[in-house]
């Protein structure tokens, strides 16, 4: 990431022109302990996100696929940027050689850029699912999400190839000491256009897009809690089939649950975007300011703070999922064997969702592979059909009769 320019100064010129000194014991202790704690927490948390989505059938939704992509990108950032920072703090220079300089620099940028693109992808997916629910039937599917994620990683992987040509080892002599750093081949002036292009594509534009889209989403969710979407058509189906005789209170309760679930998922993803903006801001601001200064500001403690914010951004997302998503919390507990163990069953859906889910299966997707908020409705079936048998997708006769009626 953009730490290399500062690395060359921080680790290559730690002293006066004629003398060089290693970092203080206080700095080494603080840097190693804090980076180890944040990166360790993030590596475990993001690995758990990947495991619970891949191993739990009802967690494999389009939104969660984007979260897996984000988790993989964060793992790359934590391992390629965070862990090498520990050795640099201990030895005050680069210790991974020329090959390590090229590969680690490349992975740093791939992780950061893929993280930004994954955030943009699930923001657009949320916008389509909530503001254009009819189009979401064909656009917000699991297969399409996988294709978009593949394009994200292919684009970022190819875009970042240039860093193999831009990174190189740099040796600086301080008296009898030679200090090796991983720095840029090109001069600072030549690097600035590259940095500002990267800054605009993977920070400014994603945040501007997220601001606009989440504003539109908030207008739908909070000003119109129950927007008109395909689920509304289920009302007509229920009346024509006699199911509409259920109590009005049960209907209102289920639609309220739908709106609440949508808000919960959207709030969680909005928090991820906000933290991305805030935690990257100190370092982005530092590099922009240093771009216009003759002598860059590279205070070691402030630079450590900026780096810790970056690592924290990659480590905190699993904590957000656990705090704000009941499904993720239950999946994490099951993975850790905490709490009561229950056999995994396919989620049941209320009749209010039957039209949307069955129509989605016509596109080749499993009922489990619909949008996240549709899977956050525990007990909805009982509200619509109290005392009656649940509608299960394992019963072909029910599915056929439902499609005939719809």
Automatic annotation (TrEMBL):
<feature type="transmembrane region" description="Helical">
    <location>
        <begin position="106"/>
        <end position="128"/>
    </location>
</feature>
<feature type="transmembrane region" description="Helical">
    <location>
        <begin position="66"/>
        <end position="86"/>
    </location>
</feature>
<feature type="transmembrane region" description="Helical">
    <location>
        <begin position="148"/>
        <end position="169"/>
    </location>
</feature>
<keyword id="KW-0812">Transmembrane</keyword>
<keyword id="KW-0807">Transducer</keyword>
<feature type="region of interest" description="Disordered">
    <location>
        <begin position="231"/>
        <end position="255"/>
    </location>
</feature>
<feature type="domain" description="G-protein coupled receptors family 1 profile">
    <location>
        <begin position="45"/>
        <end position="321"/>
    </location>
</feature>
<dbReference type="InterPro" id="IPR000276">
    <property type="entry name" value="GPCR_Rhodpsn"/>
</dbReference>
<protein>
    <recommendedName>
        <fullName>Thyrotropin-releasing hormone receptor</fullName>
    </recommendedName>
</protein>
<keyword id="KW-0675">Receptor</keyword>
<keyword id="KW-0325">Glycoprotein</keyword>
<keyword id="KW-1015">Disulfide bond</keyword>
<feature type="transmembrane region" description="Helical">
    <location>
        <begin position="200"/>
        <end position="222"/>
    </location>
</feature>
<dbReference type="GO" id="GO:0005886">
    <property type="term" value="C:plasma membrane"/>
</dbReference>
<feature type="transmembrane region" description="Helical">
    <location>
        <begin position="29"/>
        <end position="54"/>
    </location>
</feature>
<comment type="function">
    <text>Receptor for thyrotropin-releasing hormone (TRH). Upon ligand binding, this G-protein-coupled receptor triggers activation of the phosphatidylinositol (IP3)-calcium-protein kinase C (PKC) pathway.</text>
</comment>
<dbReference type="GO" id="GO:0007200">
    <property type="term" value="P:phospholipase C-activating G protein-coupled receptor signaling pathway"/>
</dbReference>
<comment type="similarity">
    <text>Belongs to the G-protein coupled receptor 1 family.</text>
</comment>
<keyword id="KW-0472">Membrane</keyword>
<dbReference type="InterPro" id="IPR017452">
    <property type="entry name" value="GPCR_Rhodpsn_7TM"/>
</dbReference>
<keyword id="KW-0297">G-protein coupled receptor</keyword>
<dbReference type="InterPro" id="IPR002120">
    <property type="entry name" value="TRH_rcpt_1"/>
</dbReference>
<dbReference type="GO" id="GO:0004997">
    <property type="term" value="F:thyrotropin-releasing hormone receptor activity"/>
</dbReference>
<dbReference type="Pfam" id="PF00001">
    <property type="entry name" value="7tm_1"/>
</dbReference>
<feature type="transmembrane region" description="Helical">
    <location>
        <begin position="301"/>
        <end position="324"/>
    </location>
</feature>
<keyword id="KW-1133">Transmembrane helix</keyword>
<keyword id="KW-1003">Cell membrane</keyword>
<feature type="transmembrane region" description="Helical">
    <location>
        <begin position="265"/>
        <end position="281"/>
    </location>
</feature>
